[in-house]
Amino acid sequence: MSQTAHIPSHRKPRARSRKNLALRAGVAGGVLGTIAVTTGAASASSGDHSAGEKSSPAETTAEMPALSADLPETAQRTADSLAMSALQYELDEARDTAAGKAAEKAKEAKAKAEREAQEARRAAAAEKAEERASRASERTTLSAAEAPDTASAPSTATGSAAEVISFLRAQLGKAYVSGATGPSAYDCSGLTQAAFKQVGIDLPRVSQDQSTTGTPISVSEAQPGDLLFWGGTGSAYHVAVYVGNDQYIDAANPSKGVVQQALSDYPPTSATRVL
User: Fold this and answer.
1) Which of 79, 166, 212, 221 is least buried, going by the fewest C-beta atoms within 10 A?
2) Rg (CA), the chain
3) pLDDT tens-digit profile of 2-25?
4) How far is CA 96 from the centre of its chain?
5) Each residue of 121-177: pLDDT tens digit?
6) What's the predicted TM-score (pTM) here?
7) Has residue 160 been placed in a domain?
8) Domain range for residue 187?
9) Do the Cβ atoms of 213 and 274 come closer than 8 Å?
10) What distance in Å separates the CA atoms of residue 142 and residue 173, rounded to the nearest whole number?
11) 86 within some domain
12) How far apart are the first and last CA of the chain?
């Protein structure tokens, strides 16, 4: 009797069905399923045996390894899980990208706001400086307008006092610079020192020392050519020269420069007579 490898017909459809299902699950979920391979063989093909050789009939059956009955459901869950993981990764990446862009935009907006604030501060500072300069110019113009016409007004000063006052009027409009003694700029004591030098009197350099020279008098007794002081004797912080008609000339400050002013605008506290 011939020996033939036989695979029972009721096993074949089951093995093929499970193989196809596993392959489809592997493609859908990105998972390579491992499938058992069936094989069976007889020791010789049909009709290929030696004459007179006896052999007992044999049937060999190769079976597919047993697969779980719920394989399709498991494969689907695996595919769904992988799909959700991929989706979550994409969502996380999109979120991180959006967060990075938002942070970059916020940084740019902050830098822009800082630049605009700095420009606004600069503009405000420039406007204030221009306003201060304009007010100083207006004060200087007003002082000049209110000052008496010294060219036409008769001078009550005589002798050395007239020379001092004439020199002072020639300096009107020049700049105030701390420590300056002329000829293009003065501070208050530098101006009075230069004026009295015209008549041969050497005053000390600073207002504190100048306030201790000459004969002390009251402000109401002042005559043209007398020194006027702000502050006590020996501690005066400003000095000017009385020119008559309740007016004095001084190197006032950096915004005014050398000007002629009224006693009532900035009343002095003491006076001395050196001529």
Assistant:
1) 221
2) 57
3) 444 444 444 444 444 454 544 444
4) 28
5) 777 776 766 666 555 555 544 444 444 444 333 345 568 999 999 999 999 999 999
6) 0.46
7) yes
8) 156-273
9) yes
10) 13
11) no
12) 163
